[in-house]
Design goal:
alpha+beta, 3 helices
Length: about 170
C-alpha cells in the first residue's frame, strides 16, 4: 500500500514539475533576442529578408549591437537588424549577451564610420527601396552622408551637397 501511495505521489510531483519546467522555459526564452541567435550562427550560411533590399544570403561574419556583417561571395553586407523581417537557417541556440566580446557593443554607426574612413565604395539600401551608390563622406551618431564617386567633390572639383539619411532607415 505504501509503495502505491509513493508511486502516486511521485507521479503528481513529476506532473507538477514538468509543468513548472515548461513555464520556466517559456519565461527564459522570452529573453532570447534575434541578435543572440545570430551570434550563435556566426560562421553559418543563412538567408535574411531585408526591407528595401530583399533576400540576402551569406555567411554570418560578425554580429554586434543592432547590426551584422554577412559575407556573400564578392560582397559583404552590413545589415541593420531593425530592417530584417525574416531569417532562414539561424542556429536554434543562442549566445547570451553577457558572453559577447566588448567589441560587439559597437553600433551600426561605428561600422559605417570604418567604411567612410577606408573610403570604401558601397551601396546603401534604404528600407523604402531607394539606393545610394558611392562613398560615405561622414557618419554621425544617427545619420550618414553618402557622396558619389570617390570623395566629396565631383570631377570638375565642385563640392556636392550631400544627402543625409538616418541610420535607422538603412536596410543594408
Amino acid at each position: 500500500m505504501f509503495d502505491d501511495l509513493e508511486a502516486q505521489a511521485s507521479a503528481l510531483y513529476a506532473g507538477d514539475r514538468s509543468a513548472e519546467v515548461a513555464d520556466r522555459s517559456r519565461a527564459e526564452y522570452q529573453q532570447v533576442s534575434l541578435a543572440s541567435r545570430l551570434m550563435a550562427s556566426t560562421g553559418t550560411s543563412l538567408t535574411l529578408r531585408v526591407r528595401g533590399a530583399g533576400p540576402v544570403t551569406g555567411t554570418v561574419e560578425r554580429v554586434a549591437e543592432g547590426w551584422l556583417l554577412l559575407a556573400a561571395g564578392e560582397h559583404d553586407w552590413v545589415v541593420h537588424l531593425a530592417a530584417v523581417s525574416t531569417v532562414e537557417g539561424a542556429s536554434v541556440r543562442s549566445v547570451p549577451e553577457v558572453a559577447w566580446s566588448p567589441l560587439t557593443r559597437l553600433g551600426l554607426a561605428s561600422a559605417l564610420r570604418r567604411l567612410a574612413e577606408a573610403g570604401e565604395r558601397c551601396v546603401l539600401h534604404l528600407v523604402d527601396g531607394s539606393r545610394h551608390d558611392g562613398v560615405l563622406r561622414r557618419v554621425g551618431a544617427d545619420f550618414c552622408e553618402p557622396g558619389r564617386g570617390g570623395g566629396p567633390a565631383d570631377r570638375a572639383g565642385r563640392l556636392r551637397r550631400p544627402r543625409r539619411g538616418p541610420v535607422a532607415a538603412l536596410g543594408s
